[in-house]
Design a protein that fits this description.
Layout (H helix, E strand, L loop, with lengths): L4 E3 L2 E3 L6 E5 L6 E6 L3 H19 L3 H17 L1 H12 L3 H21 L6 E4 L6 E5 L5 E5 L7 H13 L2 E5 L6 H14 L6 E3 L6 H8 L4 E7 L2 H14 L2 E5 L4 E5 L5 H13 L9 E7 L3 H13 L19 H16 L3 E4 L14 E4 L16 E7 L2 H8 L4 E2 L1 E5 L3 H10 L4 E4 L14 E2 L2 E2 L4 H6 L5 E5 L2
Parallel strand pairs: 7-8, 7-10, 8-9, 10-11, 12-13, 12-18, 13-16, 15-16, 18-19
Antiparallel strand pairs: 1-2, 3-4, 5-6, 6-22, 11-21, 14-15, 17-20
Helix pairs in contact: 1-7, 2-4, 2-5, 2-6, 3-4, 3-6, 4-5, 9-10
Amino acid sequence: MQTKLVIGGERRDGSEGDTVDVLNPANGELVATVAAGSVDDMLAACDVASEAQKSWAATAPRVRAELLRGCYQVMIDNADALADIIVAEHGKPKADALGEIAYGAEFFRWNSEEAVRLQGTVGMNPAGNARMIVHHPPVGVVLMVTPWNFPAAMITRKIAPALAAGNACVIKPAKETPLTALALADLFENEVGLPAGLVNMVTTKSASKPVAAAMDHNAIRMVSFTGSTEVGRILLQQASGRVLKTAMELGGNAPFIVFADADLDAAVEGALAAKMRHSAETCTAANRFFVEESVMDEFGEKLAAAMGAMKVGDGTAEGTQVGPLINQDAVDNVDRLVTAAVAGGATALSGGSPMDGPGFFYPPTVLAGVSPANPITSEEIFGPVAPLIGFSDEDDMIAMANDTEMGLIGYVFTEDLAKGLRVSEQIQAGIIGLNRGVASDPAAPFGGMKQSGVGREGASEGIYEFCETQYIATNW
């Protein structure tokens, strides 16, 4: 298992000798001890990335595309081994981990096709005395800070378009789940032949000083971050000092809306996908369930039965559907929100308290009768809890759904397509799942409104996030 920093093709210990212990959240046992980089290590990664990027930018798009296609294939070929690493360090069920690898690999396949289709324009100015040439060169070196909940996919959906556009990357993976990132870097260099220095991995014990130092490095021209809105605000402030380009995918507070005319069985199935995938630790997880009063009891019973029947356990165990949360702090935070909701009048239809035994487990929980003013409706739960809020008036429900500073994703279930589209257009979110509990796709623009982010990942828009726009005026 690779546990060293990846800087310019070399595998290194941290220059100050620091390490980070990676624990299995299913049992608290040590998985590996990983080298932790210092400020000097981060700056060294920026230096080598700067040199590697120059020749990479001059590499033919077709050559870049073929290497990216190779990265896709090597992930698919090694999916089982990569998924085992994800399960060990994150805890999600093996099926979810395999799904993450397949999803993450698709960003390489998609962007291998986009690499040869970066489009510019040539035109004449209105006065007719000059030509206008517009093209899209790479930004240069991109600093990427990625979260622990998708150790593979949150990296690949950044580096794939960045590399396709001609950039180099310096990546700080989450200290809770660095092993997947280090394994990917090895595969891309050793198996695919990606030039050394393009993908540098620097795990750190503490993020603040190394990340701030990288942002002050002359080579860094962009910061791409996925994580909490709180940290995103800090990075945006730091980026303003050098006017760095930013792409931010931040927190969510997704509404899940169920109308009385919805197919309730389909809505429950969609709710399980939107809430429970990857142990409910996703930014796209349904956070607030708005259910029309006339079907509240029936939907609540069906959802509680479905969530209560899910098998909770070690992600390696056969049939596990819900793994552990990432650490004890996560369990405590979820329990705090549930306790406050119950104290405010909610009733637990399933679950409702932490599970005994080793590991950081919380049972799938459905809460009925949740007050719209309760803290659980304003904070991102990041755990397997579904708070149900009744509504009878469509306009009031839309106002409640939009009563948040977040706007990443929303879900709407109704058999009336016209109503579904009308309501979807009124929800202030960058993504809507209409009668679907899963909306993410490498071919679609992923990102949020309001404080849920800046920019988009995926689709054709995704590669242009990692480009500049240059206009050349000339005559001929």
